[in-house]
Amino acid sequence: MPTFSADLHLTSLPQLLLDVNAIEANIALKEQWAAKHSMVLAPHIKTTMTREIIHRQLPGSWGVTVATPAQAAHAVGWGARRILIANEVVFPPLVSELRRLVEFNPSLEVYCLADSSAAVSALAHGFEDTDRQLFVLLDVGIPSGRTGIRYAQDAPALAAAVRDSRGLRLAGISAYEGIAPNVRTPENLAVIDAHCRTAMEVFATLRDRFEVEQPLFSVGGSAFQDRAAGFLPEGSLNVLRSGCYVIHDHGTYADVSPLPGLRAAAVVRAVVLSVPEEGQAILGAGKRELAYDAGLPTLVAHHRDGSTLAEPTGVVVRLFDHHAVVENSGSLQVGDTVDLGISHPCSVFDRWRTALAVHGNATELWHPQF
Fold first, then answer.
1. Which CATH number goes with the domain that contains 278?
2. pLDDT at position 230, please?
């Protein structure tokens, strides 16, 4: 059944629509799962960067995860007091921004990643003459991946560099198994398991060198959190930093997520602009409004004159800047509207200045801030 009513009062199309009930159910489900698996949540809020959503995530979370200092500043404004920047920050002005953030907010804890002596030096230089401290997690990566040390034997020297730096405190280990392709083949799962195992072994090697009472072990996206949960060190605070779960999707995560019960909470409603050929329809939404990095949108509902019709059969085959081409368009007519399900929620919200949040019969505008 369609999530969104056909007769929503909309003054403009296309429009991002959010199902508040689904968002709240996803948040509750994730919190329960994390607790059951001896993990605490630091949801990756880069997915939505929307205050009303983050406010719903904060009460059941240890903190939040972000990707940039700018996102961290927004998070502080929304009430977060523990922030994990799951990224390397090495550009001096951005390190200075982190310093200002912790100096102006005495109760704030900020955690950042490092995978090289150069990265440690960049952070240390920015914090060497302040009484506030930056918590550092050693970043463990994989060959041909993104950031992170490639070899476990590099960890002790890097840990020593952090410990020798005034203003930095060695706080734990970070890894990200979600860099793997989003498929659950035995081969792919073996690579993921090996990565998580390496991170756990690095944690064990450095157990006596951490400078906090309970060191962090941070893993777990939205696709393979179950695999990450199988490799948790003893005595660690296990921080799960999934992001996409809160919105879920009609594509990538719907296919791969190990968490039954998550509901897709976002669609983009668009109007049929043209039916120029038999079996083809052109929609008024394209690359500027729709995510397409992990699969093209899916037609999930068809509306006409305020009523919902049978489930649509068309397939989106191509996107232009503001148009989508639908083949096998069935009964789509000019003036009809369709709801487009999205794959990979991280690429949707940054396209929108406003999202229409639907909660029962009530609606309100929410404003993503990136």
1. 2.40.37.20
2. 95
**Of 41, 18, 46, 19, the residue nearest 29 (C-alpha):** 41
Q: Is there a domain that residue 69 lies in?
A: no
99-126, pLDDT tens digit by residue?
999 999 999 999 999 999 999 999 999 9
Do 236 and 330 lie in one domain? The reply is no
Q: Which residue has the tokens 């801030």?
A: 369
- Rounded to whole angstroms, the maximal C-alpha distance in the chain is 70
Which residue in the block uniquely carries the two structure tokens 């296990």? 238
User: What is the C-alpha separation between 361 and 15, in angstroms, rounded?
Assistant: 17
| E strand or H helix at 199 | helix 186-205
The pTM (predicted TM-score) of the whole model is: 0.96
A 10 A CB-CB count for 230 gives 12
138, 173 contact by CB (below 8 A): yes
- Give, for 114, the enclosing helix (H) or strand (E): strand 109-114
DSSP class per residue in 338-370: EEEE-S-GGGTGGG-S-EEEEETTEEEEE----
Task: Report the alpha-carbon distance of residue 258 to residue 221 in Å, rounded.
Answer: 11
The residue count for the chain = 370
